[in-house]
Hints:
Two copies of one chain form a homodimer.
Chain A: H1 3-10, E1 18-21, H2 28-37, E2 42-45, H3 55-71, E3 74-76, E4 83-85, E5 90-91, E6 102-109, H4 112-125, E7 130-135, H5 144-152, E8 159-164, H6 170-180, E9 186-190, H7 195-203, H8 205-221, E10 225-227, H9 232-242, E11 251-255, H10 258-270, H11 281-289, E12 301-302, H12 304-310, H13 312-325, E13 331-338, H14 348-356, E14 364-368, H15 370-380, E15 387-388, H16 393-408
Parallel strand pairs in A: 1-2, 2-3, 6-7, 6-8, 8-9, 9-10, 11-12, 11-13, 13-14, 14-15
Antiparallel strand pairs in A: 4-5, 4-7
Amino acid sequence: MGMKAYRSIQGLPEGIDLAIIILPAKSNIQAIRECAARGIGAIVLAAGGFAEVDREGEVLQEELLKAIAETGVRVIGPNTSGHTSTPHNFTSSFFPLGKIPRGNISYIAQTGNFATHTMRYIITGENFGVARVVGLGNKVDVDESEILEYYAGDPETKAIFVYLESFKRPRCFLDIACEVTRTKPVIFLKGGGTAEGAQAAVAHTAALASDERVIDGALKQAGITRVYKYSHLFLAAKALAVMPLPRGNRVSFLAPSGAMLVILTDLCRQRWGLEVPALEEPTRQRLQEISPPYIRMRNPVDIWPSAIVHGAEFAYREGMEAILKDTNIDAVVPILMLTDDTGVPPLDFIVELATRYPEKPIYVSFSGEKKHMEAAKAFLEPRGVPTFPLIEEPFEVLSILARSRQAMERP
Amino acid sequence: MGMKAYRSIQGLPEGIDLAIIILPAKSNIQAIRECAARGIGAIVLAAGGFAEVDREGEVLQEELLKAIAETGVRVIGPNTSGHTSTPHNFTSSFFPLGKIPRGNISYIAQTGNFATHTMRYIITGENFGVARVVGLGNKVDVDESEILEYYAGDPETKAIFVYLESFKRPRCFLDIACEVTRTKPVIFLKGGGTAEGAQAAVAHTAALASDERVIDGALKQAGITRVYKYSHLFLAAKALAVMPLPRGNRVSFLAPSGAMLVILTDLCRQRWGLEVPALEEPTRQRLQEISPPYIRMRNPVDIWPSAIVHGAEFAYREGMEAILKDTNIDAVVPILMLTDDTGVPPLDFIVELATRYPEKPIYVSFSGEKKHMEAAKAFLEPRGVPTFPLIEEPFEVLSILARSRQAMERP
């Protein structure tokens, strides 16, 4: 990637370094030449109407490529919703995003959707910030490999989330990923191709299945963590934004319900690749101390009897602290019981524990009343503790991030 | 099940038919004998402290069984959070549940949690009602088979959700299920056993895997739809409460994002057992009519170009109606784009379509701003249209309910 493209992504303000062209497709080639003539070397092309629509568009796109080659400008797009850099308070998006909170998560998206309405969801529904977002569009010039390389060296970026429907230079992308995944998680959602590709996939499953296996192997080898749900692009991001990557896949959780303990243990084991290991004996003893004697405390932690005797704040605080100290455990999920009847404890203790044990992720979930769940989210998330409304979600996220850790430490 | 137990579950108010005993475990046997002496034949025992805790409790439970056999009373519990019947405005739960909305979903739960804080979540966070809820507790007398049989014949119950950790009379349960699943969905979450069982399962995977296969086969044969997530006990319920069971597994969805169309099509195909079939030609033509010509309309439906030209209300309404008429399609999922910038259409049209096409489920999901999603949920759900905040959720629910339909129509 040339210096000018770097500067464009970084949104450096001085001089005219970057042009954002929002003109009908046909006018783009002329506009590019005019920019080049004025020494503007970095251009974002918003217009659709190129190869993604029809034969005429394909011809236009070929002319575009020629103009780019002749002038030497660097281009993001066309058919892109733009790029964003919060450290520079910069966006080239035509979509009125509002103030995007600055943070450490960066996205590469081969879809306009991500940089627009999904970003609006993240801004309004979650409490984490982003560093950079690039909508690739038709990627006639700047592609996912260049962006990935930039994010790899970007001190603002802690974790990289990628949505792609195709690879422009697969080998190059995988080579870069192979390096960056040693230090930063790369979490990847692969679309089935274009809408046509998805249609084709429905008709030709065997072909897809085979390609899928090849892709899967290559991604794994490059240390890339694959996800399959669109929602995981922001659920895993919210966990990573404020918490460390877990050291491994060994989880302990505290729940106010035996059924939840059983079901979640089943799922950890059978579906999520997570271990629910035995606690160290001092941990177990501490849990036993705070609990009525008729419960034999172990992992997962049946915390409610202790909460009944000592109050929920004491029980969860002491239980969580014991577990956070346990070297058998990589992450802690407290499932808080929040109802008017059982009482809602002040939750500062969770923020405090997160501060005192910064090496272990804490993901919070809930059982009980909606209003208290919303209030707990509004309190905890801006203070650095992610919350998840459904009890399965923290484990799905942990499952993803434990794989990222495994990839990071691969030989 | 005897008449008195039936009456107890139905909560018939006249006379003293039912006693709710909330006394320490040791006092329960004496209390049962006193009830029997006064002609009270149906009893709920709330106390824990029996076989679930220790050897002493086991002895107590044996004495309890003897007292039940000698007196002929029918007992729910011990160690139960009680039972609820909204048609009779009745609950024996000691947990202050508040007003439970009346509805057509009935639960059998071998956990106190469900009838207490999960019920509080349902009441405060969702907009569907329940008919009956029975917390089985230690089920020394009344068990899941009797409750299932009662729900089978219960005109208030449209669908049955079950959480069990063990079967008291497996053969009996499966025989009853085999019948009822011809007319009502039975959706079943099986816990790994007691906490001890779950622990054992971690240590002895092979044994578990083998048992699991046997259980899985038996449940399938009985037409029971198995689920694996606790959250699905209320997410599938909210869909079934207001919408019909889908006729099959063929879905059409409308999304404002190509990436969502691609990802969801991948998941339908690869993970959820759902088909995204071609639309009938008249449907396709109608979609093409309302769309700009550069998009070739098909299933799944790329609705946003039409929304840009005609407005979101027109595009979604006309698109959904065309699909609702299509005999290739069993269920419709509109993913609404709701942002300040793109505008939020009035959503009456969805309620109206649901009324005019009552044979096909409509599940709504969203992309965009949290406040609009919350408002759409608050508007649509009391009017009979379920909503799901994450785009994958309606499909997961559809996947469960399509299996229920398949079970219902098995030979």
